[in-house]
Specification:
The protein is an alpha+beta fold. Helix content is 31%, strand content 35%. The chain is built from five helices and seven strands. The chain has a seven-stranded mixed sheet. The two termini are 26 Å apart.
Length: 148
């Protein structure tokens, strides 16, 4: 698996991956979660999106991150359902963490929807600590930080 900066030709596959990865949360949240509504074209153009591609060049997942203050903000990580369980998400998060270290930042901050309960146990296993809970844009978000 390779991880590389996304380009405009990846946009359709990124949108499809986001839809497939997040559609199961619509009934829990009561509406489409933020990653299903994101402007991936603008994020790709801004150099904020990296993709994981398999040996055949198919998109296995993607991540959106950027520096914000003293931390890298990991805004979105999604894995294609057909690539789930193969370490794609962990590899993408590790890629973000390396970028944060290379940029001299103090850690990685991320948030997840409080109703995405499996994430609430995944991130602590990767070294993230819950630091805040708040409602933003109508979503109940749980913030995590992995300090370096």
């Amino acid at each position: 698996m390779d991880i590389r900066l996304a380009h405009s030709g990846d946009e359709a596959a990124i949108r499809a991956c986001a839809q497939a990865a997040y559609v199961r949360y619509v009934p829990l949240i009561g509406r489409e979660p933020a990653p299903m509504l994101a402007d991936y074209g603008a994020q790709i153009a801004g150099g904020l999106v990296h993709v994981a591609v398999d040996g055949q060049g198919a998109l296995a997942g993607f991540i959106v991150y950027y520096p914000e203050g003293r931390h890298m903000l990991l805004e979105n990580v999604a894995v294609a359902p057909n690539a789930a369980g193969r370490g794609v998400g962990k590899a993408l998060i590790a890629h973000c963490e390396r970028a944060a270290r290379q940029a001299g930042l103090g850690g990685v901050m991320l948030y997840t929807n409080a109703k995405m309960v499996e994430n609430l146990s995944i991130y602590p296993r990767l070294g993230y600590q819950e630091v805040d809970r708040r409602t933003e844009d109508g979503f109940d978000r749980v913030y995590f930080l992995k300090p370096f």
